[in-house]
Write the C-alpha cells for this entry.
Amino acid sequence: MADVATKHPMEDEVKKTEASSLVGKLETDVEIKASADKFHHMFAGKPHHVSKASPGNIQGCDLHEGDWGTVGSIVFWNYVHDGEAKVAKERIEAVEPDKNLITFRVIEGDLMKEYKSFLLTIQVTPKPGGPGSIVHWHLEYEKISEEVAHPETLLQFCVEVSKEIDEHLLAEEEEVKTPETPSLVGKLETDVEIKASAEKFHHMFAGKPHHVSKASPGNIQGCDLHEGDWGQVGSIVFWNYVHDGEAKVAKERIEAVEPDKNLITFRVIDGDLMKEYKSFLLTIQVTPKLGGPGSIVHWHLEYEKISEEVAHPETLLQFCVEVSKEIDEHLLAEE
C-alpha cells in the first residue's frame, strides 16, 4: 500500500512494471468529513446500503457467499459506469478493521472483459488533529491488451461514490441530532440464502400466501384474503401466526408489488404489532444468485415504536428467517 498521506499527480498514478505496460496501479485520496470507522463499515459491514448513498452510481450489492465483511465471501454489485449499467462479482481478499482497510478482487463481470485481474483496496485513515478522514483508493490491475484504457474513469467513479457516501453518513448523523424521537424509528434487515428460485419464493407471498402455513405450520397458522386479490396493491390479508411462543394476528395491506424485482411490501394496519408500534412495514425481495442455483431473500423491516420501552423487533426478524428456511424446504420438496 502507498502511504495514504502521499499525494500523487494523476499523470504519475499509472505505475507500469518493467515486465509489462499491461500491468498498472492507480491511486487517489478523497477527503471526507465522516469518521474512518463509519466509512469503512459501509463497505465492510453493509455494502448493500451503498446504493442508498449513491443511487446514481450503485444500484445494489448482494451477498452471494459467506458473510458481509469476511475474507473469502462473494458479493455482487450492480452499478452504472461511463453511462452503462454493469455488474461485478467480487471476492473479499483482505479485511483489516484496525486499519479500516478492505480489498476486493473482481472475479466476474464487465471488468473481466478488459482486464485479466483487478483488485480494489479502500483504506480510510482519520485526519490527525481534527474531524474527518482520508479515503485512499488503490486499484491494481492487468489489462488484456494495449488497446484497453487504464481505468482513470473508474477511479473518478470511486471518488464520486466516496463523496456521496460521506454526505449520506453526515445526513444520518444529523438525523440522530434532531430533537424529535429518532430512537423510536428503526430499520432491521437480513439476508437468507435459499436453494429455491427467486420467482417461486416470491410467488409464495405474492400469489399464494395462504399456502405459507403448509410450509411453516409451527410459525404460520393461516393467511386469509379480506379485500381485493392476492398479490394486488391495496388488498388486505389477515395472518394468524405464533411469535415468541404466543398466538398472534396481523392485518396487512399490500403496499407495493414489483414482480420483475420479486418484491412485495406489506403494511401492518391492525393486530398485535399495533399494540407496540405506530407503523410497521415488511418488504421481502428475492434475488437470483449469479451463475448458479438458489436465491437471496432480503427482509427489510421498517417501523416506529410507540415508546422507548418497546424492544426493536429482532426476534421477529429471526422469525422471518425461520419462515424463509421452511418455505425453501417446502418448495424444494414440491420439485
